[in-house]
From TrEMBL:
Organism in which the protein naturally occurs: Mycolicibacterium diernhoferi
Name listed for the protein in its UniProt record: Alpha/beta hydrolase
Residues covered by the AB hydrolase-1 domain: 24-250
Gene Ontology molecular function terms on file: hydrolase activity
One cellular-component annotation, GO: membrane
SUPFAM superfamilies: alpha/beta-Hydrolases (SSF53474)
Lineage of source species: Bacteria, Bacillati, Actinomycetota, Actinomycetes, Mycobacteriales
Length: 261
């Protein structure tokens, strides 16, 4: 079932709701959308699955610039206001959104499950990257802008970029990535602040992910008071796409362990 809701600033958010039971809200990463968590969500049993497209990612609306994690955390809280207290699952950038929402107000969050938030890739060092990105964007060099995002913001190794699918020359994808880049630039890389989150947390990661993702996960595991961790040695930052069965099984085990708690 598709639903629409309105964020506090009037931006329209679109969500897909399936199943029944305690709700689980999925928050996708950069250049994702409604289908990002579909394969994993379909594998869960005993839960209502809620997947929404973040602002600046169709079919949700475009929000005002610059984007920020505070605004996106408010979007997630709007989803939770609609579906009720829920478990929240976030991947990559979406995991950072989930952390911000939980730190601001965890009243409607029963637990967090986080896959590799890029915590050490945020901060003011991204300001010159945004300037370069915007120059590429306004000169209609969308593929070059997206490559810049992957290389200098996500810090993806050049060999992985070369081995991956062709980067699309897509203005919508470039706009979405710019919004995420704005939020990352306006944030800090202070991992210790997340120690104020006092809900059960599952941390998921791939053993083959590139630096500084593993280092950020080590710091996050040390900061969170109620965290447990699973690492798949032969997976990378793309595990949610390449090994959905592993991710779904870890989520199911984690969620089942919280029944009655």
């Amino acid at each position: 079932m598709g639903i629409s809701l309105t964020a506090p600033d009037g931006t329209e958010l679109v969500a897909e709701v399936t199943g029944s039971g305690p709700p689980v809200v999925f928050v996708h990463g950069s250049n994702g959308g409604l289908d990002s968590w579909a394969d994993i969500g379909d594998r869960l049993t005993g839960h209502q699955v809620v997947r929404y497209a973040r602002r600046n990612h169709p079919p949700s609306g475009t929000g005002p610039a610059p984007n920020s994690f505070a605004v996106e955390a408010g979007d997630l809280q709007s989803v939770l206001d609609t579906v009720g207290r829920a478990h929240v699952v976030g991947g990559s950038y979406g995991a950072t959104v989930a952390l911000h929402a939980a730190l601001a107000d965890a009243g409607r969050i029963a637990s967090l499950a986080l896959f590799e938030p890029p915590l050490l890739q945020s901060g003011p060092r991204l300001a010159p990257i945004i300037e370069q990105y915007q120059r590429l964007y306004v000169t209609v060099r969308y593929a070059d802008a997206l490559e810049l995002f992957l290389r200098d913001a996500a810090r993806m190794p050049a060999e992985l970029i070369a081995q991956g699918a062709p980067i699309p020359d897509d203005p919508v994808a470039a706009m979405s990535a710019l919004a995420d880049l704005e939020a990352m630039a306006g944030d800090t890389d202070d991992v210790g602040r997340w120690g104020g989150i006092d809900v059960p947390v599952l941390l998921m990661q791939g053993g083959l992910s590139w630096p500084p993702l593993p280092e950020g996960m080590d710091l996050l595991a040390a900061a969170l008071p109620r965290a447990q961790r699973v690492i798949w040695p032969d997976q990378s930052h793309f595990a949610t796409a390449t090994a959905p069965e592993l991710v779904a099984a870890a989520l199911q085990t984690f969620l089942d362990s919280l029944v009655g708690s």
